[in-house]
Queue: 4 jobs
Job 1
Amino acid sequence: MEKGSVSVYFVQSALDSLRVRGIDAEALLLDAGIAPATVQSPHGRVTPESFSKLWLAVAAALDDELFGQDSRRMKVGSFAMLAYMLTDCATLGDALKRMARFFNLLLDDFHCALEVQGSEALLTIRPAGQHDAPRVFGFETLLMLQHGLACWLVGRRIPVLAAAFCYAEAPRSAEYHRMYSENLRFGEGATALHFSRALLELPVIRSQQDARAFVRKAPGNIVIKYKNTDGLAAQIRRRLRASSAADWAGFDDVAAQLKMTPATLRRRLDDEGQTFQLIKDQLRRDMAVDLLSHSTRSVADIAVQLGFAEPSAFHRAFKKWTGANPGQYRLQGTGQG
């Protein structure tokens, strides 16, 4: 599986749940190996492992796996119980109906449902409480959990035909393309994932023993493993990842490999909110985060591997991406910062 990274936006949203309750978040950040400077950067990234540690720590501090987004707490252990319960279902459709009932029993401010419209099935979440504005992080967290569980139950990614959101588009929506689909709609009546109705007949292949292993690795495995891999940007990313950065093909060559004209490729990428340069920058960023976190290679060697002519250029780029320089990021990740 390709390594990835998680936007600092999700880290900030989780920490906001602590701050509004007067709980100091710095110790949890340090324990998760996340540099405070990274959290302050609008473009910061963290590893899935660090995000998982922080997610679990915040949930434990609040005793709430939905981070205070609902009037009632989703107590720690709820997600694990749900995973165990769903392994008894025969098909994906049965599991999604049971999952919706489970969340509707626990929560007051969100209403979950499985709906069918013609050839499509919809996993929907609607606001149910009396709030002036949608609790965006609550919708994001619920959608992430439900889609990740559904994919895990059948042992494959469920391709999302379209994703709708009951709130206005925000800058972080760029993350949604990789998480769900290139077809996004905002300001809709419900937050929903559209997928093929035929997939409801897929058999559930997981056991309770599988569930124990799955829960231990959540939520990092949900955020990264089942991201959208069907979009054009994802295809280009895989092609680039297959070779060293120094040997990456140019834009015109990639267009030829995909049997498109450069103009068509540029237009198709624009439809996904991407550019060729942005794809390369994001891939270098994720490779850098992974190498600094999981290898002992020197910063200079990593700079060369990622195609930077000088270590200083890598330092500048990495600080722009994450808010910390490479050395600081590595030390923080090992608990020495």
Job 2
Amino acid sequence: MPSRLPAIGVDSTGRLHVVWTRYDDGVGKIYYRAWQGSWAAPQERISPLPAYAGFPALAVDAAGQPHVVWYGIREAAVPPPTRHGAIYEIFYTGFDGLVWAPPQLISPGLPDSVNPSLAGDRTGRLHATWYQFDGHWYQVRYAQRGAVWEEPETVLATRFDAFNPDLAIGPRGQVVLAWEHHDGSSSVIQATRRISGRWDDAVDLSDGPSQARHPSVSVAPSGIVYVVWDSDDGQISVREFTSQWEPPIRLTGDGGNTYPSVAASPRGADVVWTHTAQGRSSVRYLRLGPGGTSPAARFSRRAAALGVAAALLAMMGLALLASRRRRRRRG
């Protein structure tokens, strides 16, 4: 069956958890499988029949159990009067060690909600974000789950569209969130932090004339924040937050580079992305150093092209570092 849009996470025992969209009879469904030296069981469908489900995001809790969100369509849903007439909503399920919980709707309101991201903190609390139409604009929405999912909230509502949010959790439980802010014809990457239950004012991370898209966020154990994104000039950039946001740094310089994904660690941060040149595509990888006095000292600019096997190993390593899902697009 055709399959796409995978997400991975690794638990403390080294077990790899994978979810993806598989198109059964042309309709997307979410499937799950685990690897620990070998595939532990056959692939398992975790979204309900017969409705569409796609674009899963995955988090693994401290007990090693997977949690998954996706956007999907409820059976017999009626298209609402939204901009696109969409009927997508965000659903959640989690595994308790025995069974998967029945899928739960977590995006009340107009059913035009897409591209969720999911992360877990050290206490076991889950944090989810997505973007959702409010009747006028697409807004970033955020919800958290302890024992149950709390009512979602809009993050810094504006009179402009906000797309493709991503989030990560810092060592003290602070939430860092980045998204695309669309103001007319421009697209800027913005970010905020949630501290003591309040969102900081949004900060523009990208600059220049290029349209910036597809942010990916990760936080190192030290608390250093990394945000990477691509631009319509085909290049990848990064900004780092320690006590303040450092200036943006371009990581690439040739070909077309899209859909970056970052995972932070005590050693710095690792970035992978799609590189296209002369009609061919490959996965590229870059290690960002943990510190230094200049960009040349801090950022190793040697980007390595990865073959299929190497790419899988690199992705497994990134999952072990971050256990989080990256990449944002409809699909």
Job 3
Amino acid sequence: MKIRTLIAMYACLLSIFIAYAYYYQQDISRIRSLQDEISSLHGKPDEKYVMVTFQSGMDYWKRCLKGFEDAAESLNVSVEYRGATQYDVNEQVTVLEQVIARKPAGIAISAINPTTLTKTINKAVEEGIPVVLFDSNASGSKAFSFLGTNNYSAGVTAAHEMAKLLKSEGKVAVITSPHQLNHQERTRGFVETIYQKYPRMQVVAVKNGKGDALASKQAAMEVLNDYPDVRGIFATEANGGVGMAEAVAELNKKYVKLISFDTEKQTLDLVKEGAIAATLAQGTWNMGYWSLQFLFHLHHHLTSPSRSGDALLPAYVDTGITVVTRDNVDHFYAK
């Protein structure tokens, strides 16, 4: 009887040991799998990704680049910043061609023109270089994703904000960059919302500020001289906001309400002073950070670049918008 009991105890202990060994091995396998997954999210320092912009010295790009660099640090890869120095599509095409020739691991580009860059973007993709667009799209290209503001929605937000400032009545104008898709969408969102929602408001002019403070100042002065009863102006980019603020000050029409775009220091200072009533802040750090994450996953084949299947990167990511006024402007200065 004692022998049978002893055998039963040994059998039980052996079963426990086998079960423990099995689950221990399972845990080890899971840990190794997790380690492999983590190591797959680390590249090499000589693995280089390039961000390409235009008017490359603008403060606006600094937060985009910071996000790009932060992602690079977490992934143990290198990044480079390139761009057209001027608002010149031909210069940006040249810069992009030079970048492609160096065969980087991936390219994130903000397109100055939605159609002119398409051929060169497609060339990069066809040569096996992952490309994503951020901030300004080229929707007809073969780039894998676009990360940026829902620009039509941003224009809608600007229209509602202007209506609030003007108590839903009065003439307004827009200063924009009409050849750039993101500005076209902002303008359309603003104009259509004013027309559809605010019958006592009227958009009397849409002017080309050429992405330049001086040209935008001239455009604003033309608006204010041609339409002396204009009560508000919306600029779809930061230089436009600076230019229209200078025009309003020079003509001593401080009653005209101004809404700008982006959070360069000069724009924020004008908001703080009250010269600009509000500006719209984009999620620029998100644009840079997630652009590099997407490129890394594409380069390492961690997701499918095709338009079918399960492991896809989204074709579009809305990186968000925030209305900045005197009440919250201090939170948007670069730290």
Job 4
Amino acid sequence: MAKSLLIFNESDEAKKRQYVLDFYERFGEEATKKAFRVDRKLIYVWRKRLSAGHGVLSTLIPFPTTPHTQRVMETNSLVVEKIRQLREKRPRLGKEKIKPILDKFCFNKHPPTISESTIGKIIKRKHFFFQKQGRIYHQPSEAYLRRMRLKKTRLRVRYAPKPVNFGHIQSDVVEIVEHGVKRYLFDAIDTRMKFAFSHPYNRNTSANNCDFYDKFKSVYPTAITSWQTDNGSENLGQFEEKLKKEGIPHYFTYPRCPKINGVVERFNRTIQEEFVQCCDILPETREYKKAPGEYLLFYNTERVHKSLGLKSPLDYLITEGVMSKMSMTRTST
């Protein structure tokens, strides 16, 4: 304390107040008021403090203006626990994505809901940061693009498409190495609806891409009208022939232009951050292939998207009239 006061003795604020007192003694009240906007009452207060302190300059230190009693943010414990659970399970889920899920929880459990900014404060103050450290975002290699030679004319996409209707699919493959085991994550997403699907495979082949296409088609809620990929070998051969037989146009992006496939590239990052980096299941087990199902169910039914007006893909389908709530709850007999 004494050291801090000693430092303040030489500060500009203490010297300024002493200078004002000296100026007042020399030139009087009117000149002091015009020069420093300090009236006689404040001068007397400073004089009294300086006299009580036996002329020590540290007595002119301004008193702290912090309130003695500060407000404390009070939030229902159920709400805080729900935020903790969401952040612990999905560490990359931000306050904007948590807000709609929390509103549904508060509606069912009846605690008072909170604003988006309050969610952010709770995350920061409670230190709800559970993402694993030391992970590096996957940077796909472009070496194969330089070796690729086009043998026939392909349908090309020059710019990132902005389809008006549903059915335009973008797909990509991500190479993942976990616990020394290499896996290939096949991803596909509707450009407008943001309905996504993902499945891991041991090899990056055209045959596996055909199998992935069949799986995607079985869960996709509408009809596929076109398919967009990069120039990888898994998108040629059997897969290209399969799309041709089903009459689905196959569009290719230009080499070294990942922005054209921007929607699926962003989904690649999302599923790595929110699922792959949080998954503790060993890659060589059967459970590993089933693990993405839970996350995809969350992604397509609960996780909201800014591009959809903070709605999930299925809620957006219902809003657009493509699906109904009855079709979501219908069971087969």
